[in-house]
Amino acid sequence: MSAPQSSEEWLFEAAKVDYCTALEKGRPCILYKPRLSIDGNQWCASYGDMPEGVQGFGSSPELAMLAFDAEWVAKIKEVK
User: Fold this and answer.
1) 48-64 burial, b for 16+ CB within 10 Å, e for fewer?
2) Is this model's pTM higher than 0.70 or not?
3) pLDDT by residue (tens digit) across 21-75?
4) How far is CA 40 from the centre of its chain?
5) Which of 76, 80, 78, 74 is nearest to 56 (CA)?
6) Domain range 7-79, CATH class
């Protein structure tokens, strides 16, 4: 995609950036700041104690945080 040309296009692009930033700020791994550690050959993002807590595992810190977010949402769905 080419760079925005008009002021309306610039405003639209700025709104998209604001929206994406708001989504990122609402992720469980951002809000609850799980502890990040290495567990064997994987990274672990952990919040709370097992088995009640939430853990996400991945081959990188980013993947562990993504897995943490998915587990957080799954845990909330269990409770409902």
Assistant:
1) eeeeeebbbbbeeeeeb
2) yes
3) 888 889 999 999 999 999 899 999 999 988 889 999 999 999 999 999 999 999 9
4) 23
5) 74
6) alpha beta
